[in-house]
Structure formats: structure tokens, C-alpha cells
Amino acid sequence: MNDMSAAPRPERQRKPDWIRVKAPVSKGYHETRQLMRDLSLNTVCEEAACPNIGECWTKKHATVMILGDVCTRACAFCNVKTGMPRKVDPLEPEHTALAAAKMGLEHIVITSVDRDDLPDGGAGQFVKVIKALRRETPNTTIEILTPDFRGKMRASIEAICEAGPDVFNHNLETVPRLYPTIRPGARYYSSLRLLEEVKAHDPMIFTKSGMMLGLGEQRLEVHQVMDDMRSAQIDFITLGQYLQPTPKHAKVEDFVKPQVFDAYGSIARAKGFLQVASSPLTRSSYHAGEDFAQMRDARAAKLAKAQNKPGKKDI
To answer: Which one of 10, 56, 118, 263 is at 20 to 30 Å from 126 when CA atoms are compared?
Structure first.
């Protein structure tokens, strides 16, 4: 007999054709997955249910998620587990460097869960990972995607910048109006200030930030976030489609069409970003190595142009 009192199951939203990807089945995917298991490493690719995991892992590109797989925050968009995290793994830095060496990575992205329970917010582990990578794979360029280090920002930024990552990424995620519902544990202007502080500490570190679209933001709000990012001297912006991980997460308000992403990309370039990635499947670390190389070339060209610019003639 059917239980008529049972609550109806939430209806899953149907994705448009341009957002669908094939299930990962390649040999390279399974090899990358096994390597992460062997070294007891977590990846944001799996924990955040990234749609690009099949493509990236086939190419043996993975974004390592340090400081465990349990987050102290509960953002409405994120699929990472929430709760009280376990102790920090002292072997994690060496295992991360070993994974980079075995995969032959030219560029690696390191991210983490929020660790509000730690005195430094986890900054010390980022430093150890960067140093281990510099020792074991000195030619690998390093991109970090950090939390906001709430209440510990200045000291955390200084320590990480001293370790010398090539790219410092922290995502604003959405427009300020949506923070109370989408990112309640964070503050928009605090996240913006974090990236501003990185540039103030070391202008040569590339800074990067990203947004998810489709959460109910308005076009002019997106333009304003771009302006805020440029005011903070952020070099690289990523724009991608938000996808609802489970029915309990924030729902997709709009599947933004590819041509709209193209238009946003053109506007971002006109505003002066060194690098722009804007498409439905764009994620923070998607094609990160290729994008970094292009961004580095763009800055070199910009600096060369500035040096060769003739000065004003004496009147």
C-alpha cells in the first residue's frame, strides 16, 4: 500500500543541451582517481561535483582540496560536507607535491574548505603545500584558491604571499544583494578587500576571482561586480553557470545562454582584465594552466608596451 502522506520528492531541473557533459569513462580519469585515493588526497572536482571532471581528469588535471573534506560553513550553493572537520593531515603537503610530480603538472590549483576552527584559518597549510611543491616540482606554477580567512585575513595573506604562489584566487561567487541567502557566512566587501590586500602586499602575484551566474542576479549587478574587481586590481575573472548540486541547495533561477556569457566576456575585456573566462561550463580551475600562460603573456605585453611608450616632448 502506498504511503499517501509521504512528502513529494523535489523536482530536478532539466539542464539545457549546452550544459550537458558526458560521464567520465576514460583510462586517464580512472588513473587520476586512483592516484588521489592512493595519496589520501581530496579534490574539489569530486567534492563539488564539477561537470568538467571527466575532461580534466582524462588530461590528468586535478584541483587538490587541502585541509580535509568537511567545511565549517554551509553555503547554499556548495556540495562540500558541512560539520566539524578532522585534524589537519601533516602528510598532506608532501602528498600533494608527490601527486604533482607523478602527474607531471606544469600548473597546479590548490583549494581548501573553510576552516574557521583553526587559529590561522588554514593559511599555514597553504604555506606548507606551496613550499613542498617548490621543493619537489620547482617548475610547476602554483595557483591557490583560498577561503576568506574570516577574522584572520591580514596575517594569513602575508604568510601565503611570502610563500610565493603565482596566482592568488578567491571567488566573490555572486552579487552583494544575494550574499545573505547564497553565501551567508561571508561578506562581499571583505572578500573584495582580501584580493586588494594581496596586490598591496605583492603586486606581481596574479589575482583572480569568479562568479556563478543563474542565481537571480541582474545584468547591471554583474557589471558592478566587474567594476569592483577592477578597482581591487584583480587580473582574471571567471564567469560560469551555477548548477544545483542537490534539491536541498539553492535552485537555478536561470540557465544563462552561451551568447550572454560571450557578451559578459566582451564587457570584462573592455574593462581591462588581463584574462577572462566566460562560458556556461567555466569553473575556477577549468583550463587554469592554459589561462595562466595567456595571462602571463598578456601582462608581459602590457609592460613592454608601457616601457616603449614615448614620453612627452619638452615644450
So the answer is: 56
75 marked among binding-site residues: yes
Q: Which fold has domain 24-303?
A: TIM Barrel (3.20.20)
Please write the tens of the pLDDT for every residue from 236-286. 999 999 988 888 999 999 999 999 999 999 999 999 999 999 999 888 777
- State the average pLDDT over residues 211-230: 97
Residue 308 makes CB contacts below 8 A (sequence gap 6+) with none
Give me the sheet containing 275-278, strands edge to edge: 42-43, 63-66, 107-112, 141-145, 167-169, 206-213, 236-241, 275-278
Q: In this model, does residue 4 exceed pLDDT 80?
A: no
Query: Using alpha carbons only, what angle is made at residue 246 by residues 175 and 168, rounded to the nearest 5 degrees?
Result: 45
Considering only CA atoms, which of 135, 150, 4 is closest in space to residue 72? 150
Q: What is the pLDDT of residue 128?
A: 98
Amino acid at 241: Q
Contact call for residues 239 and 284 (beta carbons, < 8 A): no
50 is in an annotated binding site: yes
More confident site: 39 or 151: 151
- Written as nine digits, the cell of 288 is 587554469
Tens-digit pLDDT profile for residues 29-47: 667 767 777 777 776 655 5
Residue ranges per domain, the chain?
Answer: 24-303
Distance CA 73, CA 125 (A): 19
Does 161 count as an annotated binding residue?
no
